Amino acid sequence: MKNPLALIVDDEPDILELLSITLGRMRVDTKEAATLQEARQLLEDTPFDMCLTDLRLPDGDGIELVKHIQQVKPNLPVAVITAHGNMQTAIEAMKAGAFDFLSKPIDLNTLRDLVKNALHLQPPAPTTKESDIPTGSPRLIGSSSRMSALRQTIAKVSRSQAPIHITGESGTGKELVARLIHALGPRKEGPFVPVNCGAIPGELMESEFFGHKKGSFTGAIADKPGLFQTADGGTLFLDEVADLPLTMQVKLLRAIQERAVRPVGASKEIAVNVRIVSATHKDLAELVNAGQFRQDLFYRINVISVTTPSLRDRIEDIPELAQYILKKLSERHHVDEPKLTASAINGLKKYAFPGNIRELENILERALTLADGHEIEIEDLQLPDSPMEVVDPAALAMITPGKRGDIPLDMYLEKIERDAVLEALEFCRWNKTQAARKLGISFRAMRYKLQKLGLE
Ligand SMILES: Nc1ncnc2c1ncn2[C@@H]1O[C@H](COP(=O)(O)OP(=O)(O)OP(=O)(O)O)[C@@H](O)[C@H]1O
């Protein structure tokens, strides 16, 4: 089999030599160019598998070459070599289409990882096809133009190593998108490690992220690897990144920039090779303006941004999504898959879905238990008239468990749910994570309930 071929562009002969020897040992052949002009010429008549370019070249800027490659060979993975600590240009290059960067002085392990990643990159797909998605990965349902555009973005960004920030309302599929980006990229054999930044108690945060040495604090009975080490070779998904306290934001930025972490109580740093994907339903730029999120970290994690559309913005996807969810639910509950009547579908299309697809899942799960027969009627959906309306507190106070009287079932159940949630929150001094645990529900489900009940 023929060796892969890399184009290496630098005007420093020592660096070219270092690159060609290292790549040669990995059985990757190289062709060298010392200027932009030479690189452009070689690209015209040689089919390369990857390109590695310095940013400062005698006749121009390496970013120009990145842009040129995006135009003439958009499928060719290109990485840039930057001066030490020059994160700004590294970010600029990734925004222009570079899949990764390497800082000087060149660390050979990082170089080898980068080359392996480049050569593993899948042939590009204009859209993510079912066949590209490894079995067991979640599916992204919806044929609307918004979803087709999202699929194309996922296919494109999954090939890059650049940090991705996903924004979108609650329940719109941000974690699902993060999982797909991982599953379609060169790190798919590595771990995908999701972490809910809002759910880790402040005092444990450093040790959770970076690990700790035995005896470094009371309760540290053994060495423990942190999330960065667990995600080594794969993707670390920072969900609800806006909830990170400022002190932790500084430490995180350092770990991302240095590509190394120091476990609590350890004297040495450990190198980690992790791709960062983050998400939040909050407006990070606004939090930066308000001084609640560090601008430097914002720039570092938001190199490429992806937005998940709300369900209201893609109503046409509701029938397909609803049927897909019903199929999953019926399999899980071992019942026949029911069909939605036309009026049920109409009802769903008119509903505002503040909790998006997660709310659709909850509505359908409840409907599946309520419906008798093979059809789900609009009544089985129990759609609230005004989803986010906060119920009159005086009316709610009249409701006591066990005495429903003439009170509509929905309102009655909501009151009981609200009381249970409030009781747990008060018991746990409004610590949502502990309250969720006490109620036996996930943190996500808790957040959804708080929003639904107007308690946030
Ligand atoms: N396009 C889609 N097709 C199929 N299922 C979807 C789609 N989008 C979201 N889901 C499902 O909806 C649920 C919520 O998605 P997910 O947890 O990814 O949302 P999220 O935006 O990360 O929510 P949050 O902001 O609350 O963390 C999951 O069960 C997910 O599988």
From TrEMBL:
Keyword Nucleotide-binding annotated: yes
Domain Sigma-54 factor interaction: 140-369
Keywords: ATP-binding, DNA-binding, Nucleotide-binding, Phosphoprotein, Transcription, Transcription regulation
Entry superkingdom: Bacteria
UniProt xrefs under Pfam families: AAA_lid_14 (PF25601), HTH_8 (PF02954), Response_reg (PF00072), Sigma54_activat (PF00158)
PTM sites of type 4-aspartylphosphate: D54
GO molecular function: ATP binding; sequence-specific DNA binding
GO annotation, biological process: phosphorelay signal transduction system; regulation of DNA-templated transcription
Domain Response regulatory: 5-119
The keyword Phosphoprotein appears for this protein: yes
PANTHER family (UniProt xref): RESPONSE REGULATOR PROTEIN PILR (PTHR32071:SF100), TRANSCRIPTIONAL REGULATORY PROTEIN (PTHR32071)
Protein name: Two-component response regulator PilR
Natural source organism: Permianibacter aggregans
